[in-house]
C-alpha cells in the first residue's frame, strides 16, 4: 500500500507496532528507539562531513532509510500521546498539511545554503530535542507511572516539532522526499511483519 498522507502513514505504521504497552514500557521503548535511530542518522551525516561534502555511494538511499526509521518512532510516539503526525509535521508552516505531495511541494523550492557547520548545528539541535524527549518520558514513567497529562503532551509535541523541523532541513539539503521516505519505510516494516521477522535483528532481515 502506498500512503499519500501523514494520517495514512500513522495509521498503517501503528499496525506494525508490536511492543508491549504495560507499565509504561511502550512509551519508553519508543523513546529509546527514537534516540537510537537518531544516532544512526548522525553517523551517516558524520560520514558525509568526513568525506568533505561528497555524497558517497548510496548515501541518499541510506539517509532516506534512516530518516524513515526515525519517522516510525515519531509516529508511534504521536499515537501513544494522542497527537496527530500531520499537525506535528506542520508546526513549521502556518497551516496543517496532511498530503505528502503537498508537503514536498511546499519545501522543494527552498534552496539549501548550508555549510558543514550549519549541518552540524542541525545535528546538535536535533540531538538536544531528542534528549529532552527521552528525559521527559523517563520522568513521566518514574513520577507518574507512565500517565501523561496535558502539560506532558505539550512538551512532547514541542520537542517533536523541533525534531521534525530539522528533518525538513535534511530533506531540503539532500533533495529527499517525505513521500518517498514514509513509503519506503512502511513497505519495509510491513514486509517484515508479513514475513514474521519484525522482531528479529539486522537491517537486511
Walk me through the structure.
It is a single chain. This protein has 205 residues and is mainly alpha-helical. It contains 8 helices and no strands. It has helices at 6-14, 25-50, 59-80, 85-89, 100-107, 116-144, 150-173, 178-194. Helix 2 runs antiparallel to helix 3 (59-80).
Cα radius of gyration in angstroms: 17 Å
Instruction: Give the count of structural domains.
Output: 1
Distance linking N and C termini: 20 Å
Beta strands, count: 0
Portion of residues within helices: 55-70%
Structural class: mainly alpha
Characterize the largest beta sheet: strand count, sense, and whether it forms a barrel.
none
Topology pattern, helix = H, strand = E: HHHHHHHH
Question: What spatial form do the alpha-carbon principal axes imply?
Answer: globular
- Tell me the strand percentage band: under 5%
Whole-number mean pLDDT: 87
Q: pLDDT under 50 segments (min length 5)?
A: none
Number of helices: 8
List the helices and strands and how they pair.
Elements: H1 6-14, H2 25-50, H3 59-80, H4 85-89, H5 100-107, H6 116-144, H7 150-173, H8 178-194
Helix pairs in contact: 1-3, 2-3, 2-6, 3-8, 6-7
Amino acid at each position: 500500500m502506498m500512503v499519500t498522507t501523514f494520517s495514512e502513514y500513522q495509521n498503517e505504521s501503528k499496525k506494525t507496532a508490536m511492543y508491549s504497552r504495560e507499565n509504561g514500557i511502550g512509551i519508553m521503548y519508543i523513546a529509546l528507539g527514537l534516540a537510537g535511530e537518531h544516532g544512526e542518522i548522525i553517523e551517516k551525516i558524520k560520514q558525509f562531513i568526513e568525506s568533505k561534502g561528497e555524497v558517497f555511494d548510496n548515501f541518499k538511499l541510506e539517509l532516506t532509510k534512516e530518516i524513515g526509521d526515525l519517522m516510525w518512532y515519531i509516529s508511534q510516539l504521536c499515537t501513544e500521546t494522542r497527537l496527530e503526525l500531520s499537525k506535528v509535521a506542520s508546526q513549521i508552516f502556518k497551516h496543517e498539511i496532511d498530503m505528502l505531495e503537498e508537503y514536498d511541494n511546499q519545501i522543494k523550492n527552498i534552496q539549501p545554503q548550508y555549510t558543514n557547520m550549519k549541518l552540524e548545528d542541525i545535528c546538535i539541535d536535533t540531538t538536544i530535542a531528542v534528549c529532552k524527549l527521552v528525559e521527559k518520558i523517563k520522568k513521566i514513567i518514574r513520577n507518574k507511572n507512565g500517565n501523561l497529562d496535558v502539560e506532558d503532551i505539550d512538551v512532547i509535541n514541542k520537542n517533536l516539532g523541533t525534531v521534525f523541523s530539522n528533518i525538513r532541513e535534511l530533506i531540503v539539503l539532500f533533495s529527499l522526499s517525505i513521500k518517498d521516505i514514509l513509503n519506503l519505510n512502511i513497505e519495509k516494516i510491513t514486509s517484515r511483519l508479513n514475513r514474521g521477522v519484525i522482531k528479529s535483528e539486522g537491517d537486511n532481515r
